[in-house]
């Protein structure tokens, strides 16, 4: 498969690039001096696209199948400025970055619908859709350089206003910078600047 001039393969047990992925890629704020971190890289498409325009990208995922998938897609595109790390959010991250990206698991999922497999971690945001989002927002600032930027994707189903107010409390200027209506929700891209 191809997006722009990047080739990629979808992989079993890994989130396939979808509308939310493309919303993020199409609205990235990039420059060639940037050191970038992507949380939850999935297939690696976002990181590979970004890597063409920045200094370096570190990308992590909690799903071991995603790690293998990213390794193979990075190789397919001969990218040599991407490092792949297995990590639950920032657990194994020790650097700071100019830009942090995250297409979050943002769907509200009731306890009785929760599946304990790697694949569903891609969208399962717990009962209010915010379990991973809230953890991310509490930690992200520590991994940003002065003047750093967060670009994250979530949905109207997982309380955009709460994300904006949490970011503002942490000292960011934050706004919704892109929206796409898909089926029963609006997918939103939130951009926050320190
Ligand atoms: C919606 S998918 C996005 C995948 C890819 N970035 C894209 O846009 O196509 C969310 C990704 O976050 C990963 N993820 C979920 N919880 C995570 C966590 N606590 N730490 C790291 N990655 C996580 C999932 O495994 C999945 O690959």
Brief sketch in words of this structure:
The chain is of the alpha/beta class and 194 residues long. The chain has helices spanning 19-26, 45-51, 64-76, 131-139, 160-169; strands at 2-3, 6-7, 35-39, 56-61, 82-86, 97-103, 144-155, 173-182, 185-193.
Strand and helix map with partners:
Elements: E1 2-3, E2 6-7, H1 19-26, E3 35-39, H2 45-51, E4 56-61, H3 64-76, E5 82-86, E6 97-103, H4 131-139, E7 144-155, H5 160-169, E8 173-182, E9 185-193
Helix pairs in contact: 1-2
The structure holds S-adenosylmethionine.
Description:
The chain is built from five helices and nine strands. Helix 1 packs parallel to helix 2. 24% of the residues lie in helices and 30% in strands. Strand 4, helix 3 and strand 5 form a beta-alpha-beta unit. It is globular and about 40 Å long. The chain has one domain: 3-Layer(aba) Sandwich (Rossmann fold). The chain has 194 residues and is an alpha/beta fold. The site of S-adenosylmethionine has 25 residues, from helix 1, helix 2 and strand 4.
Number of domains: 1
Q: Oligomeric state of the chains?
A: single chain
Beta-strand segment tally:
9
Radius of gyration: 15 Å
Q: Let me know the CATH homologous superfamily.
A: Vaccinia Virus protein VP39
Count helical runs: 5
Shape: globular
Cα distance, first to last residue? 36 Å
Q: What strand order characterises the main sheet?
A: 5-4-3-6-7-9-8
How many strands, what sense, and barrel or not for the largest sheet? 7 strands, mixed
Write a concise keyword list for the protein shown above:
5 helices, alpha/beta, binds S-adenosylmethionine, Rossmann fold, 24% helix, 9 strands, seven-stranded mixed beta sheet, globular, 30% strand, 194 residues
């Amino acid at each position: 498969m191809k997006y722009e001039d990047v080739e990629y393969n979808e992989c079993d047990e890994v989130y396939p690039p979808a509308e939310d992925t493309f919303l993020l890629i199409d609205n990235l704020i990039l420059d060639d001096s940037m050191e970038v971190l992507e949380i939850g890289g999935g297939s690696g498409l976002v990181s590979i696209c970004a890597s063409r325009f920045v200094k370096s990208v570190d990308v992590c995922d909690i799903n071991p199948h995603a790690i293998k998938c990213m390794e193979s897609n990075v190789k397919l595109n001969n990218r040599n400025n991407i490092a792949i790390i297995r990590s639950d959010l920032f657990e194994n991250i020790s650097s700071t970055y100019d830009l942090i990206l995250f297409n979050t698991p943002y769907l509200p999922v009731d306890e009785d619908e929760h599946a304990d497999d790697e694949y569903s971690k891609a969208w399962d945001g717990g009962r209010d859709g915010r379990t991973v989002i809230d953890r991310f927002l509490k930690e992200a600032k520590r991994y940003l350089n002065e003047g750093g930027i967060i670009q994250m994707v979530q949905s109207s189903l997982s309380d955009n206003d709460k994300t904006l107010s949490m970011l503002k409390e942490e000292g960011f200027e934050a706004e919704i910078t892109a929206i796409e209506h898909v089926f029963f929700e609006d997918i939103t891209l939130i951009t926050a600047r320190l």
